[in-house]
Amino acid sequence: MRMFKQKYGVVWWLGVGGCLALAVGCQSEPRNYWPEAIATLDPTVILDVPLNQPMNVTINGAFHARMGFDSGQSIAVMVNPTFAAEMKLPVVGHASASDGKTAHGASIDVIQVDSITVENAVFPNVQGIVLDSTRSGINQRGSLGFPLFETCLLTLDFPHNRLIARAGELPSGGEPAILPYTLEQNLPVIEMTIADQRMSALVDSGSDEGIVLPKAYAERVPLNGPLRSAGHLETLFNTMQLWKADLKGEVHIGEIVLRNPTLTFTDGFDQPEIGKAFLKNYAVTFDQKNRRLRITSGSSE
Fold first, then answer.
1. Which of 81, 262, 285, 291 has a CA positioned 20 to 30 A from the CA of residue 278?
2. pLDDT digits (tens, 9 = 90+) for 227-266
3. Which candidate, 72, 99, 51, 16, places its Cα nearest to that of 274?
4. Is the pLDDT reported for residue 140 higher than 90?
5. For residue 100, what pLDDT band results from cuts at 50, 70 and 90?
6. For residue 199, what is the DSSP state?
7. pLDDT score of 103
């Protein structure tokens, strides 16, 4: 999912099957947060939980939920309408939405949250949105997104199934596994090369696919055979088609090289993406303060 950059922007949600464009009339603000006490041997760690399971979340100290995390969700928290009505959170703005093909017919509320507690870590002064995501298969009361961890190191350790948030920064140079990244609509985008084509790709832990390209890119990269149908992707408002094809060449992401991998193509998005089918072999650490990303085989701890 993608959402607003500064005052306005867009939302994408690939992890639950599709994309969503959202224009929001509000601004995000920097946050500082640290729990008062954490039971850990490492005092820099504020959160260490299983990556593939929903986390225990408390909103405003009173309302409890189980929520998963998606690096492709560009708003700190999304809650479903029933949960939002129960909490009676103040609405501070409104949004209109589209999945890139179909416009959402109703206005989406932007809400203000005094605090979100994830396990023992406390995040004050958070903005979120209210959206019904059941069409795409999410039956939780909400989900957490990339901006929630904007002032700490966030590690998604797929081989060891850990999500770890901690104090600190990644070193500024000298480590080949550390790459710069940019923010597009509040989401992490890195450079990669496919054959001789250099392109930017969203790092989306919510996408079940590996390397996803817009269908038009099938004319730009060498393929070992024609596109083959690979089913459909359910979005919040629509259904989009998927195709697969094997690359005739290499993919370079930092120091990682993939030879002749299978690529996914879709007619629904205009941004290349890197999802879980690729990330499952790596630990990825985001330093949002300095816009650095480290990707290593196994744990990065």
1. 291
2. 999 998 776 667 889 999 999 999 999 999 999 999 999 9
3. 72
4. no
5. very low
6. E
7. 54
The Cα–Cα gap between 233 and 235 comes to 6
From the CB of residue 203, how many other CB atoms can be counted at a distance below 10 Å?
24
Q: What is the pLDDT of residue 26?
A: 32
Query: Judging by beta carbons within 10 Å of its beta carbon (0-12, 13-18, 19+), is residue 88 exposed, middle or buried?
Result: exposed
161: which 2 tokens? 């199934």
Q: In angstroms, rounded to a whole number, what is the distance separating the alpha carbons of residues 5 and 43? A: 32
DSSP labels for 78-141?
EE-HHHHHHHTPPEEEEEEEE-SSSB-SS-EEEEEEEEEEETTEEEEEEEEEE---GGGT--SS
pTM here is 0.84
Return the structure tokens found at 185: 């609509």
Alpha-carbon separation of residue 272 from 13, 70, 190, 263 (angstroms): 13, 17, 10, 11
The pair of three-digit structure tokens given for residue 216, joined into one six-digit string: 């038009």
**What is the torsion angle, in degrees rounded to the nearest 10, for the CA atoms of residue 54, residue 58, residue 63 and residue 65?**
0
Residue indicated by tokens 């949960």: 83
Cβ burial 224-263 (10 Å sphere, 16+ → b, else e): eeeeeebeebebbbbebebbbbebebebebbeeebeeebb
Q: How far is CA 240 from CA 57, 212, 235, 260, 268, in A?
A: 32, 13, 7, 25, 6
What are the angstrom distances between the C-alpha of 154 and each of 28, 238, 254? 19, 32, 19
Q: Measured in whole angstroms, how far is the alpha carbon of residue 78 from the centre of its chain? A: 12
Token readout for 198 is 């250099």
